[in-house]
Give the backbone structure.
Amino acid sequence: MCTSQEQCINNNNRIIEHYIYCIDGSAVPNYNQFYKEMRIMKKFKYLMIIVPIIIIIIAVCLLVPDKTLELNGEKEITIQLNEKYQDEGTNIENCDIKGSVNTQKEGKYTITYTYKKQKVERVINVVDPSRIVINLNGDENTIVKQNDEYIESGCHVIDKKDGNITNQVKVSGKVDTSQPGDYKVTYCITNSSGLSVKKVRNVKVVENKKFEENKKGIPVLMYHYVYTKDDLPEKMDVNYILNTKLEEQLKYLTDHHYYFPSYQELEAYVKGKISLPKKSVILTFDDGQKGFLKYGIPLLEKYKVPATSFIIASKNGEKKVKQYASEYISFQSHSYNMHRGGGNIGHGGIISAMNKNQIVEDLKHSHEIVQNNEAFAYPYGDVTDIAQKAVKEANILCSFTTHYGKVKKGDDLTALPRVRVLGNNSLKGYISSIE
Ligand SMILES: [Zn+2]
């Protein structure tokens, strides 16, 4: 008689599981084995349930998308230099963040947020607000005679990096000239980096009986070069004015409340549309000379006197317009490349040897650089009939010669006179030339 299942398997070469076979062929149920197999079966049954559940869970995890990674706040932000930057993060707190913002240095910074396979970015522009310069045309405290038309003189805006962005200016505010009083006109601009800057023009509508009208004509002062005691010109002449002398004159103008009309106002005045205050004066500086840019502009800024810089556009015009952009300076054309000899009238400037189309082309080229065409100063003051037709065709409001005189009502806008300021002139002489 066998004593174990193993023996039976060996002996009979049969699979016998639940019975113990004896030598005589009788079989006795092997309950131990039976229960053992039942237990295995049971375990297997659990696996049959658990494994599909796990598979389903994995499938669900793979098929159902993650929470979408989204930025809190704006995708692109503009902040000012040295302004505190507080990142708003994303909707998923534990996402991975790369990148930083240096608020002390102008630039475009990118912060990248990653969560699993998702990625979002935020751009932060750090900009210097002083890079945008708004130059109001004419006087920032505009004076209008009651019931005269209000002339909107506009402004010029230079972004020291992007250049002239005047065409993006939005003007708001209304002036009712029938009602004497104070009004405000606001000029707003947003540059390509999203930086917004604004400037306000104060407009005063003065009652007729209180308005002191200019009847003698408007002196348009013609200066040239500025120098200092420490920076003397190589070849001194009357076109050079010492910085302290210029300062003395500017101080006189502000102390005596002179008014600085725009070219739009001057044009309207010449056409007889409006009156201008008795003490009106316009300052112009020819040639865009180094000393004027270096020493003259800071003085004009100090006394808040607006002035025009007539620059020869072919001589680093573009660079000068950006580098010396100032709230008080309007860069205008002194031609692109006509400030040279070759003509046969007056001072021998080339303009008299050019045809109308050539002059118009030169003027338009200069306007692309100075990006203004309100005023023009004839190089060397040489004027011809053809040149006058050309400035008209180039839509210039006021063109100036070097002829001595004040601008009066009814003058020819294509050839207006100026008052030359001599470097050796006394303050007394200066005052009498503008009164
Ligand atoms: Zn010149």
